[in-house]
Amino acid sequence: MKSNLTIGTVWGIPIGLHLSWFIIFGLLTWSLASGYFPRAYPQFSDISHIVLAAVTSLLFATSVLAHELGHAFVALRNRLPVRGITLFIFGGVAQIEREPESPGAEFRIAIAGPLVSLLLGLFFGLLWVIDHNIPTLAAPSQYLMRINLILAFFNLIPGFPLDGGRVLRALVWWRTGSYRRATRLASSAGQLVAFGFIALGVLAIFDGRFFDGMWLAFIGWFLQNAAASAQAHMNIQEVLKGIKVEQVMSTDCVPIPSLTPLSQLVEEQVLAGGKRCFYISEGGRPDGILTIQDIARVPQSKWRYMSSRQAMLPLERSATVQPETELIAALQKMEFARLSQLPVVRDQQLVGVLSREQVLRYLNTRLELAV
Fold first, then answer.
1. Disulfide engineering: 145 pairs with which of 89, 109, 125, 294, CB 3.0-4.6 Å?
2. What's the pLDDT score for residue 284?
3. CB burial readout 54-78, b (16+ within 10 A) else e
4. For residue range 98-121, what is the model confidence (pLDDT) as tens digits?
5. 22 and 102: one domain?
6. Domain co-membership, 361 together with 276
7. What's the pTM value of the predicted model, to 2 decimals?
8. Does the residue 13 lie in any domain?
9. Which CB contacts under 8 angstroms, 24+ apart, belong to 9-16?
10. 230: Cβ–Cβ under 8 A, 6 or more apart, which residues?
11. Is the peptide bond before 161 cis (omega within 30 degrees of 0)?
12. Are residues 178 and 224 in the same domain?
């Protein structure tokens, strides 16, 4: 998930906030300020309730961040790069760049987050024991104790993509030796859990608890989508297993002069010639590539004045792959670098370009042929 606002880094990992985080922060603050703290401290003013609610919401957000940092720390210890951590409406997500290579690593990474939340729950519980007679401290401590324990046990529900689902996948993977079978089972369990949340939400709505019901149904919808996506991703991996980049890449990139205006290129090569990929070369070595997507990003009003060199993607700034690279590995590289295409290079020479569009076309063709 892409963050909209980066607030800092921890261990070199960017920490970001998604726009939806502000929604849950506002709702939680409003709920605490209008219900929880007025019941706990009826003698306090409305302003005091709002301040206490905002501080408690921030501490809860910090607890969620600590939960995700638990995952990230163990991932780094297992030599798995972490691209970033994003807090959003349903909590947080640590974006680990690739899947663990063993069930043990999967288990350790998955269990780390709930363990951090459990420890935080115990910490705030101990704090409540110490400060339960101190005004302004007891109610926040008690709330944070409860919410962290709920966070720990909720995440241990055995359904993907929850941490408990990943723990289940690790155990099945360890027992069967099959990562694909484990993922399929954990994803199916995740979808069952998701439909359970949706059913509870519907029942709550009919029981007159509209807001609670909508929230439960919304959580179920999110979990169902995530579990289904994991299953679809696994199916794609099975289809693409053993496929090399050279079997899918485009080899029709044509050389063009570096000073060719984009307007001329579109007229003569794209519209008239049907070409979709070009490269600019000086001294026999390609300097960069230019695709339809690159051209489309430039406003048409500038096509007459912008040269191909100005619009190209320089090879030194782009990730590259070799023709013998596994297609799955190349797709992961594109995803992590957030690229829509990858130059395919052999012996410092451009031999083709791999794009998401080509991969989708290849997948569709195999589905149509049922192979």
1. 125
2. 61
3. bebbebbbebbbbbbbbbbbbbbeb
4. 788 899 999 999 999 999 999 999
5. yes
6. yes
7. 0.75
8. yes
9. 10/69, 10/72, 10/85, 11/72, 11/73, 11/76, 13/72, 13/82, 13/83, 13/84, 13/85, 14/83, 14/84, 14/85, 15/65, 15/84, 15/85, 15/87, 16/84, 16/85, 16/86, 16/87
10. 160, 161, 183, 186, 187, 190
11. yes
12. yes
What's the token pair of residue 284? 């026999």
Catalytic residue among 68, 238, 316, 368: 68
Same domain, 98 and 236: no
Q: Is the dihedral of CA 210, 214, 215, 216 positive or negative?
A: positive
Which structure tokens are listed for 152?
């720990």
Query: Count of CB atoms within 10 A of residue 300's CB?
Result: 11
Highest-pLDDT range among 122-136, 143-157, 257-271: 143-157
The whole domain housing 93 covers 1-156
| Structure confidence at residue 198 as a pLDDT band (50, 70, 90) | very high
* Residue 68 bears catalytic tag: yes
Count up the domains in the chain and report the number: 3
Within a domain: 162: no
Q: Which residue has the tokens 């070369």?
A: 281
**Mean of the per-residue pLDDT values for the chain?**
85
